[in-house]
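Protein Entry — a single chain follows
Fields — amino acid sequence, structure tokens
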Amino acid sequence: MVNEMENTDTPVALITGAARRIGAEICRHLHQAGFRIALHYNSSAAEAQQLCDELNQSRADSAVALRADLCELQQLQQLARAASEVWGRVDVLINNASSFFPTPVGDITEQDWDNLFGTNVKAPLFLSQALAGELRQRRGCIINLADIHAERPLSGHPVYCAAKAGTIMLTKSLAKELAPDVRVNAIAPGAILWPEQDGELSEDDKKKILKKIALKRIGSPTDIARTIRFLITEAPYITGQTIAVDGGRNLVS
């Protein structure tokens, strides 16, 4: 069991979309760095519980899994409250959860809009608002996961690109609104993991993307997790910024 001092002093990170892929690696990386983890999930219950058990086996009472539909305002507020109550604090909010699927013009629905803007703009905004007081008290930080395609449109994905552009402006706006107590930054990943399901790419599409990356390879979820840790622990004078972690994709036309 962790001792009373650790219960009181150990920082807590709330990470959305934490059960799989990049989110899971962020959890593991910050946990290894000494954080306690409130890992959010929506539909990936089995993966979330498995990861939570893994972290707690490594260090007792250091992780909890919390479910919420990030497109539902009441559930967003409940998530913020639940995360704060587990250990009596939240020091870091990482808005990682994101829907991603194509929306070609002519086939876009209102549900597409609500889904993509809900996970990428609505959820980060209302979670940040709900936790603003707690984060101010802790002099904590918020990190949003944006995308290089917020500034470089991806064919067939106008709603997603617009939503991620909203993520970047939200980052800047929150950095201004919550200063000087809370730092707010974003990370814009390039090709880190190939998309799944509706966004799945053909082998030819993957080759075309790799040709446009200066380093000629995709990145790793660890690249994102390390950058997040840097922003949390090593960057006290950085706020309102978006850091591209893209292997130089932005250098190639």
